[in-house]
Design brief:
The complex is a heterodimer. Chain A is 0% helix and 54% strand. Chain A contains no helices and eleven strands. In chain A, the strands form two sheets. In chain A, strands 2, 4, 5, 6, 9, 10 and 11 form a seven-stranded mixed beta sheet that branches. In chain A, strands 1-3-8-7 form a four-stranded antiparallel beta sheet, with no helix packed on it. Chain A starts with a strand and ends with a strand. In chain B, the strands form two sheets. In chain B, strands 2, 4, 5, 6, 9, 10 and 11 form a seven-stranded mixed beta sheet that branches. Chain B has a four-stranded antiparallel beta sheet with strand order 1-3-8-7, with no helix packed on it. In chain B, strand 7 and strand 8 (69-74) form a beta hairpin. The chains are: A mainly beta, B mainly beta. Chain A binds chain B through residues 44-47, 50, 59-62, 95, 100-109, and chain B through 1, 31, 33, 35, 42-45, 48-49, 54, 86, 88, 90, 93-100.
């Protein structure tokens, strides 16, 4: 059974940093691209970052480019999202997803609240 | 960015057929996917590549379209289908999602 378990969320002040982790199990982690997608409270979904299966390439939308960094440790089956210079508009539930064009598996999500 | 437009809400009776539309501001070929999200849960993939049924998803769900116009059909609708349905394109950079269509049952 595929499982994606996110950790690392919480309350953080604007301008500060936070790092999310996602531990994957139930599939061969290093065969798949992985992504982060977020959802602000009561709002829609927004793709945040993707990383190739080897970790050699990463992709971001303009809204987070230069502030967020996606990475992975294939030996530990773990995906990361380093978030710097956080803003109030980054407040959301962050989902770790397995990606094959479509996001075919989603974690339960972790809440990040950016507020003073 | 590719904007995906969905109607905000629909209300149907159990047993009926419902179509949920998603229109893209530019062609996404068949790089369109559909998700179901129930309150308090993560999204669940229903359809990938515009018309391919994800494993384990009931055959009541189907998808069609290419280019800019896409449709998710549920036939027949069941009470458990109450949820918000999102379309997402992976053809153009950046990936984008529609705002979602909330399906309510009468």
């Amino acid at each position: 059974e595929v499982q994606l378990v996110e950790t690392g969320g919480g309350l953080v002040q604007p301008g500060r940093s936070l790092k999310l982790s996602c531990v994957a199990s139930g599939f061969t982690f290093n065969n798949y691209w992985m992504s982060w997608t977020r959802q602000a409270p009561g709002k829609g979904l927004e793709w945040v970052a993707s990383i190739t299966n080897s970790g050699g390439s990463t992709y971001y939308p303009d809204s987070v480019k230069g502030r967020f960094t996606i990475s992975r440790d294939n030996a530990q089956n773990t995906l990361y999202l380093q978030m710097n210079s956080l803003r109030s508009e980054d407040t959301a539930t962050y989902y770790c997803t397995r990606e094959e064009g479509a996001h075919d598996y989603w974690g339960q999500g972790v809440m990040v609240t950016v507020s003073s | 960015d590719t904007v995906l437009t969905q109607s905000p809400a629909l209300a149907v009776s159990p047993g009926e057929r419902v179509t949920i539309s998603c229109r893209a501001s530019e062609s996404v070929s068949t790089g369109m996917h559909w998700y179901q999200q129930k309150p308090g849960q993560q999204p669940k993939l229903l359809i990938y590549g515009a018309s391919n049924l994800e494993s384990g998803v009931p055959a009541r769900f189907s998808g069609s379209g290419s280019g800019t116009d896409f449709t998710l059909t549920i036939d027949p609708v069941e009470a458990d289908d109450t949820a918000t349905y999102f379309c997402q394109q992976s053809w153009n950079d950046p990936y984008t999602f529609g705002a979602g269509t909330k399906l309510e049952l009468k």
